[in-house]
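Researcher: Last one for today. Full complex below.
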Amino acid sequence: MNIFRFLGDASHFAAIIILVLKIWKTRSCAGLSGRSQIAFAIVFTTRYVDLLTSYVSLYNSLAKIIFIFSSYATLYLIYFRFKATYDGNHDTFRLEFLLVPCALLALIVNHRFQVVELLWTFSIYLESVAILPQLFLISKTGEAETITSHYLFSLGSYRGLYILNWIYRYYVQNYYDLIAISAGVLQTLLYCDFFYLYITRVIKGKAFALPA
Amino acid sequence: CKEPQIKDEL
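Model: Here's the assembly. Have a good evening.
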């Protein structure tokens, strides 16, 4: 565990806490894409089936359990507990446009044609684009609550920090995984536009709104 | 593709 990965994981945990806090404190999931959250639940479920087959560390197992549990808890909050506040009319991105290509790509580009490995590969590809329904929702409404923008900033930073971790591991441990790296770079690139607006608006105390 | 390594990342 190097400093970049630690900060990346911390950022990921922070994102999840901010998300749950936003829903709980405002008693509302307005502005959140349930479809992105469904995608994240699928990502964690398919990636962490290895909880049953391989043990890395207590930290690793606990983190996996927390990610899986929190993703389903978030779905419960959006689709059941605070369903009345869910912005379903604007959350219209078709998830199958992400699921199908990611599944096909995982079947074609993978390290080994084996169930657990294919599920891991699929989850890596899906995670890289899972935020698209959320960004699509914001582009439709043209705005995001400040706390939602903090959530997105944390979530976007996490994979960006993982890229630094991969660079570090390449040089120090001669370890690299091209599938994780290319998907991670794409994932981070998708946030760039958001990062720009976050830094130029939210940090300066303004509301997050798309330029007219 | 190269052999998969142990997946120690999240």
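The radius of gyration of chain B is 8 Å. Chain B is about 0% helix and 0% strand.
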